[in-house]
Amino acid sequence: MNTDLAVLRLVFSFHVVDQIMRADDWIDPLEIDWVQRRFPLEQLQAHGLVDDAHQLTDLYRELLSEALIRLPAELHEHQKTELALTFFDSAMADGQLEPNEQAQLEAAANLLGLPMARLHDALHHSDVVGEVDLGEPEV
Q: By the 8 A CB rule, do 71 and 8 touch?
């Protein structure tokens, strides 16, 4: 497949956000609202990622596999950083960054090939961080 990178970014982003939302075993209504605004059902259906029963499709799974291969190689670091900031924003949708959410965020950055030091720098310089203790990046 040679899918458009924008579609692969959408699929990967949806996957990571889903993992972050499920990380703390409780999905807050604020998180649900964030996901619905960021990933409208109509958009997911238009790309064939979700069927009429709102279930993920085989195409979604195929595109996720493609995304995991292509995004680390084809995205520039600033694009990877933008994705990571979106993931952080999703983790903070309920106003708290839980340890399991942070672990998912770091795993996503790792999958993208985004160095932890770069992720931490981007988070510290963004307006989404606020009063969150991110700790020091592991070297």
A: yes
Task: Say how far apart CA 84 and CA 114 lie, in whole Å.
Answer: 9
Q: Which residues contact 71 (CB under 8 A, 6 or more apart)?
A: 5, 8, 9, 12, 80, 112
Residues of the domain holding 94:
5-124
The enclosing domain of 78 has a CATH number of: 1.10.3680.10
Cβ atoms 48, 57 nearer than 8 A: yes
The continuous run of DSSP H or E covering 44 comes out as helix 41-46
Per-residue pLDDT tens over the stretch 12-48: 999 999 999 999 888 889 999 999 999 999 999 999 9
d(CA 135, CA 137): 7
Which of 114-127 are b and which e, b meaning 16 or more Cβ less than 10 Å from the residue's Cβ?
Answer: beeebbbebbeeee
- Residue with tokens 């720098």, as numbered in its chain: 121
Q: Provide the CA 112 distance to its chain's centre, in angstroms.
A: 10
pTM of the model: 0.86
Is residue 84 within 8 Å of 112, Cβ to Cβ?
yes
Q: Report the pLDDT value the prediction gives residue 77, as an integer from 0 to 100.
A: 93
